[in-house]
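Structure in, sequence out. Go:
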């Protein structure tokens, strides 16, 4: 039934919700005409002021030429430095910079756009004359934590880094970036080898000073011990996951329950001592659907590992995309309710599963691919669900229900 309701959402400027292999899958820009000869198009203006810092989303900002004239807010990078820019150190250097609603991550995207122009065309003028599209996949990925994972070539390293990046992907973007990079500096150039050879007596000390919100160094020591056990007993995180998975089940509910339960059975004495705290921070990395959790970060990790497109990595080969569940955040919750993808009002696994089931009616093989588009309508502050603005700014006007119905009236 839902598929019939949204089949024509392309007429409401939500075409990428129902399109395949689109060049621009970003809800932020889906209403823009492709007109690269305009140079640096301003894709987002005041809406950036209301953007939620959900780090696992891909936000693309291509600023106007005045930012270039300003020398990237005083950095004065030359053309050679643009060509040499890399997302890791670049992101760390630019993260603290703020100009009104422009943040460091937006400047990272800008530099990557310039870098591609110079790399492929030699100059901005040549790019302008070529009429090319600046929003290449590497630019779109620059502001998602998955770009950190892409720095590693081997599948083993990508799996370990992916889990760590997803596990820490809560809080403000700058904080998440700093925490992930700090952890990876300790792990060194081969994170999978670091985990395999980890010896708490000699290797735990550099982790202990690290802090990410309520996560402390000893929680990271515990995480490494859990990952080490997975690699030792099953060869990979995927192997550990599959040991508790039944591929005939419609989604990953039972598999995640088993995954987290078995992970927390690891001996963590080296991290916490003989008496593990009742609320040990490592448990936050391993929530369970059966406890009601939406398991947002685990579902995010699975999306990165299982799906294959310009962003997701397809490191895993034995889990079907059809069984993934959407990572549930505030934007997906709002859009899910507004579009009647779910009847639930409280966030949790039931809501995530029902939203995914609704999306599965449109694409049974890959329902989670719609997650990105749904999220970005919320990030644009375009969704008016339960807000005075209602659907005045929404590209889905006419297909959504922006006001909560009460017992006395149906708005």
């Amino acid at each position: 039934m839902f598929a019939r309701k949204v089949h024509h959402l392309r007429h409401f400027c939500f075409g990428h919700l129902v399109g395949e292999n689109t060049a621009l899958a970003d809800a932020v820009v889906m209403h823009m005409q492709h007109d690269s000869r305009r140079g640096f198009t301003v894709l987002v203006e005041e809406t950036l002021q209301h953007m939620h810092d959900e780090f696992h989303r891909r936000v693309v900002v291509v600023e106007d030429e005045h930012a270039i004239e300003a020398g990237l807010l005083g950095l004065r990078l030359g053309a050679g430095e643009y060509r040499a820019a890399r997302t890791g150190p670049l992101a760390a250097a630019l993260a603290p910079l703020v100009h009104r609603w422009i943040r460091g991550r937006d400047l990272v995207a800008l530099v990557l756009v310039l870098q591609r122009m110079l790399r492929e065309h030699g100059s901005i003028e040549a790019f302008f004359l070529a009429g090319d599209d600046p929003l290449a996949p590497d630019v779109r990925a620059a502001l998602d934590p998955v770009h950190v994972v892409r720095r590693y070539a081997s599948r083993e390293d990508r799996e370990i880094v992916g889990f760590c990046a997803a596990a820490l992907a809560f809080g403000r973007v700058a904080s998440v970036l700093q925490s992930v990079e700090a952890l990876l500096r300790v792990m060194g150039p081969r994170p999978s080898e670091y985990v395999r050879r980890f010896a708490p007596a000699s290797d735990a000390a550099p982790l202990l000073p690290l802090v990410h919100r309520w996560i402390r160094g000893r929680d990271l020591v515990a995480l490494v011990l859990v990952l080490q056990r997975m690699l030792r007993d099953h060869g990979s995180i995927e192997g550990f996951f599959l040991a508790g998975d039944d591929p005939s089940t419609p989604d990953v509910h039972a598999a995640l329950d088993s995954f987290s339960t078995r992970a927390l059975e690891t001996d963590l004495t080296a991290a916490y001592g003989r008496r593990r705290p009742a609320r040990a921070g490592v448990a936050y990395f391993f929530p369970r659907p059966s406890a009601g959790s939406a398991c947002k970060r685990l579902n995010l990790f699975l999306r990165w590992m299982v799906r294959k497109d310009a962003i997701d990595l397809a490191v895993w080969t034995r889990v079907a995309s059809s069984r993934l569940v959407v990572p549930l955040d505030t934007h997906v919750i709002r859009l899910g309710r507004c579009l009647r993808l779910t009847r639930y009002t409280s966030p949790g696994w039931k809501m995530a599963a029902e939203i995914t089931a609704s999306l599965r009616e449109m694409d049974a093989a890959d329902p989670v691919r719609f997650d990105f588009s749904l999220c970005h309508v919320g990030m644009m502050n375009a969704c008016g669900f339960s807000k005075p603005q209602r659907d005045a700014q929404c590209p889905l006007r006419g297909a959504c229900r922006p006001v909560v119905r009460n017992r006395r009236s149906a708005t």
